[in-house]
């Protein structure tokens, strides 16, 4: 029996992963990841790091983060407590959807994860208090390779569902996207 549905989004390669649960009188069991099923869906890079975060405040935003080559990575983001609005921005220069974004609600209740391919920036806003997330990364964390877009960048025009009431100083200070005289992203 399949434990996941892989649902495409308008941004090629970005996928919602619906986790199917098995319930009995004790509670439930669900897989967060399965190498066999993910490989069959074309997601085949080995996992290098698993991160866990808790965000206390509702309305808090983290992001929009990525790692520069050669440390690009895919992320599988799951929300195990509470609910978030998860956003991925297509930052692949050759993509027809370059600079477009897609948002999905991920929650403990809906058991959706978001698979984010290489070349995307990622961020989220908490829709409840005390949100707990698990990230599966295909590259180790490299602070020297960190890149970021600003969550309030007008060129992205992300419509965050709640007023942003908490954003780290670092995330507040990421630059806006610049364009040269020919409209090329700098
Ligand atoms: C991501 C990361 C951070 N750190 C450290 C750096 C810092 O001292 C502290 C908190 O890091 P940050 O402020 O970057 O945490 P945060 O803003 O939660 O960063 C995360 O944001 C979301 C949107 C993502 O997509 C993740 O990949 C990650 O970038 O933890 C590690 O040691 N290892 C890691 O893998």
UniProtKB/TrEMBL annotation:
Acyltransferase among keywords: no
Annotated GO MF terms: dTDP-4-dehydrorhamnose 3,5-epimerase activity
An annotated GO cellular component: cytosol
Annotated SUPFAM superfamilies: RmlC-like cupins (SSF51182)
EC main group: isomerase
Active site annotation, chain numbering: 65 (proton acceptor), 135 (proton donor)
This protein's pathway: Carbohydrate biosynthesis; dTDP-L-rhamnose biosynthesis
Catalytic activity: dTDP-4-dehydro-6-deoxy-alpha-D-glucose = dTDP-4-dehydro-beta-L-rhamnose
Domain of life: Bacteria
Residue numbers marked as site, Participates in a stacking interaction with the thymidine ring of dTDP-4-oxo-6-deoxyglucose: 141
UniProt keyword annotations, A-Z: Isomerase
Pfam families: dTDP_sugar_isom
GO BP annotation list: dTDP-rhamnose biosynthetic process; polysaccharide biosynthetic process
Keyword Isomerase included in the entry's annotation: yes
Known EC number: 5.1.3.13
InterPro entries: RmlC-like (IPR000888), RmlC-like_jellyroll (IPR014710), RmlC_Cupin_sf (IPR011051)
Subunit: Homodimer.
Family that this chain belongs to: Belongs to the dTDP-4-dehydrorhamnose 3,5-epimerase family.
Its job: Catalyzes the epimerization of the C3' and C5'positions of dTDP-6-deoxy-D-xylo-4-hexulose, forming dTDP-6-deoxy-L-lyxo-4-hexulose.
Name of this protein: dTDP-4-dehydrorhamnose 3,5-epimerase
Species, as recorded: Sulfuricella denitrificans (strain DSM 22764 / NBRC 105220 / skB26)
């Amino acid at each position: 029996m399949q434990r996941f549905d892989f649902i495409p989004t308008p941004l090629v390669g970005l996928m919602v992963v619906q986790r199917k649960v098995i319930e009995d009188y004790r509670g439930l069991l669900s897989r967060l990841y399965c190498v066999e099923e993910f490989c069959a869906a074309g997601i085949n890079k080995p996992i290098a790091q698993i991160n866990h975060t808790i965000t206390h405040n509702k309305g808090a935003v983290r992001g929009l983060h990525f790692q520069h080559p050669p440390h690009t990575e895919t992320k599988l983001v799951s929300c195990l407590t509470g609910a978030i609005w998860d956003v991925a921005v297509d930052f692949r220069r050759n993509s027809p959807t370059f600079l477009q974004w897609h948002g999905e609600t991920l929650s403990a209740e809906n058991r959706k994860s978001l698979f984010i391919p290489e070349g995307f920036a990622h961020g989220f806003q908490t829709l409840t208090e005390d949100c707990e997330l698990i990230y599966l990364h295909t590259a180790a964390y490299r602070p020297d390779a960190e890149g970021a877009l600003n969550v309030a960048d007008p060129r992205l025009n992300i419509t965050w569902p709640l007023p942003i009431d908490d954003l780290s100083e670092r995330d507040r200070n990421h630059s806006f996207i610049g364009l040269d005289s020919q409209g090329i992203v700098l």
